[in-house]
Specification:
By secondary structure, the chain is an alpha/beta fold. Helices cover 40% and strands 15% of the residues. It is built from 11 helices and 9 strands. It has a 5-stranded parallel sheet with strand order 2-1-3-4-5, with helices on both faces. Helix 2 runs parallel beside helix 6, helix 3 packs antiparallel against helix 9 and helix 9 runs parallel beside helix 11. 50% of the residues are buried.
Length: 297
Amino acid sequence: MSRTAAEIATQPACWRRAAQAAAAFEGLPEPGERVAVTGCGTSWFMALAYAALREAAGQGETDAFASSEFPAGRRYDRVVAITRSGTTTEVLELLGRLKGSVPTLALTADPKTPVMDAADTIAVLDWADEESVVQTRFATTALAFLRAGLGEIPGVKPVAEAAVDAELAVTEPLPEAVVGAEQWTFLGRGWTYGLALEAALKMREAAGAWTESYPAMEYRHGPISITGPGRVTWMFGTLPEGLAGDVARVGGELVAHQSADPLADLIRAQRLAVALAESRGYDPDRPRNLTRSVILS
């Protein structure tokens, strides 16, 4: 078993611990605050998901930006940064620019890195850190931590229930038609769009796969043209009306675990990425052209 696969399997326990940690943590955004969430790569996609969840919970306007694209001069009551390594250049530079002008919170896996001094408040989730270059459990655990801090969210399961769904997602066999496909398109709506982006990224990172990701209602506006026999359309969350019929009409394979928590369904996509990488002779722990952190000179 690869290290990545072993880390993927620990996510249900990590999420439960994250929910407990969030309940005792002081420094999460307060209801009514105008908040921005930021990160790079996978962390940015988790930021997008959290921003949509926070607004769905009615807790206030929440934006998400890649750290390199954070809008200068826009005012927020709090900025939340997600950085597994605590060393990513764009995140540290942004926190440096914001220092003293807005309260900042950083979520990290490594308490011995520069982010500890760059942000005003730190949530250290070191028990969810990873040896693999590819992020899996830290990203979902960070989102579970932030999600748990929101309390009840209409139409979204509590983190404890998501962890139950995750236990099945860790062990359930992947369908042969999905593993053997040549192309995968991931879709989401609201907070699950960030998960769709992340699923596609995992497939590209670990396996060099041909993957795409879109808001679900945009699928008919062009992306459906790529779907056909031997190609998968994967929906995170509830299927939009008529989408299943559209995929069937063009001969695609539809994946939609509508009763499962979408974050748990992301585990299936992570496992698919590892399985595909191994079938192609790649090392999912050490993907091509990637490092644990992007540190610019």
